[in-house]
Specification:
By secondary structure, the chain is α/β, with parallel strands linked by helices. The chain contains four helices and ten strands. Strand 2 and strand 3 form a beta hairpin. It is globular and about 35 Å long.
């Protein structure tokens, strides 16, 4: 079952989802569960969490998902690595990547099986 909890707001360093404030990057799974993003999967390879690695892409991906909405940070600094982008293309998986304030608007109106990854700082 797909459940998209409502994202109330974001500020630099935080995101508020259904009334709960998180002061770290989050992943919202298909079942609506909110998990802390495993930035170390990308940081270990690129030295930054601003490039999403293949390992992190595989961690985020769920078989029944149709799309991933990525909040790329308040100023849109996060990008997909070429390997991650290729992985998602091979899965015929739609990825929407935009600054977090815009991404939360997309998330709140998204239909279907959607996963979210939201970076809350730069």
């Amino acid at each position: 079952m797909c459940m998209n909890p409502i994202i109330d707001s974001t500020d630099f360093g935080s995101i508020t989802i259904t009334g709960t404030q998180y002061q770290h990057d989050v992943i919202i799974c298909l079942d609506g569960k909110i998990k802390k993003r495993k930035k170390k999967l990308s940081k270990a390879i690129y030295g930054t969490s601003h490039i999403i690695s293949l390992d992190e892409a595989k961690y985020v991906y769920e078989d029944d998902a149709e799309q991933l909405i990525i909040g790329a940070g308040q100023f849109g600094r996060v990008n997909l690595s070429e390997d991650a982008a290729s992985f998602f293309r091979e899965k015929h998986f739609n990825v929407v990547l935009m600054p977090t304030p815009m991404a939360i608007r997309e998330w709140n109106k998204a239909k279907g099986a959607t996963i979210g990854l939201f970076h809350v700082t730069c």
